[in-house]
Amino acid sequence: MAKFFESIDAERADFIARAPMFFVATAAVEGRINLSPKGMDSFRVLGPNRVAWLDVAGSGNETHAHLVADGRITVMFCAFENPALILRLYGRAVPVLPQDEGWAALEPHFALLPGTRQIFDMVVESVQTACGWGVPHMHLERERDTLNKYNLSQGREARFAKYAVRTHSIDGLPVRTPTREPR
Fold it and tell me: If pLDDT is split at 50, 70 and 90, which confidence band does 181 have?
C-alpha cells in the first residue's frame, strides 16, 4: 500500500543515496510525456524538501524543455534487491545552467562529468513509497562509461558547439543552452 510523506527523512535519503539509477518523468501541456533513466552518481538530497541532479549532454533535452514550460516533475527510485521498495518524489524543478545565478551554490555538490550541461534543482512537494513487489531482482554489474568517453572524445569546444544547436525539444519547445562551460 502506498504511503505519502511531506518530506524526505533520513531513511529515505539513505535509500536514494544507495540507488544506482533513477527515472525522471515530465510533461508539458501538449506533446509527448518524457521518461528518462538516469545514473552516474548524479543525484543529491540537499534537504528534506530539496534535491538536485547533474545532467550530462547525451540525447535530447526534453526534461529541460518540459520544466521551462510547466515545471512539474516526478522522480522515481526502485529497489532491485531486498527489501522491495518504490520511492517517488513529486514536485517542481528548474534547470540551472552554468551561467545562471544558482550554479555556484549547486556545483560543489557534484563531481562534474565530461559534457555536464546543467543541474536540475527540485522542490519536493510530496514523497510516496510503494511496495515494489512487482519490480524484478537485478544486480548492478558496473556503470557504463560510454557517455563519458564520448563526451571526452568530442573535446570541450565541440561539446559546447553541440549545446548551441539544440534550441528546441522534439515537440518544438524551446530550451536554453549553456553560454559557458562549467569550470
Answer: confident
Cell readout for 40 is 552516474
Quick check: 132 and 99 in contact, CB under 8 A?
A: no
Q: What is the DSSP string of the chain?
A: --EEESS--HHHHHHHHH-S-EEEEEE-SSS-EEEEEE-SS-EEEEETTEEEEEEE-SS--HHHHHHHHT-EEEEEEE-SSSSP-EEEEEEEEEEE-TTSTTHHHHGGGS---TTEEEEEEEEEEEEEEE--TTSPP--------HHHHHHHHHHHHHHHHHHHH--B-TTS-B----SS---
Q: Which amino acid is at 85?
A: L
pLDDT of residue 74: 98
Q: What distances in angstroms separate CA 135 from CA 19, 70, 127, one per listed residue?
A: 14, 30, 19
- pLDDT at residue number 177: 80
From first CA to last CA, the distance across the chain in angstroms is 45
Full-model pTM: 0.91
Cell numbers of 92, please? 517542481
Residues 6+ apart with CB under 8 A from 42: 53, 54, 55, 56, 110, 113
Tell me the HSE value of 158 on the side-chain side, using a 13 A CA sphere. 7
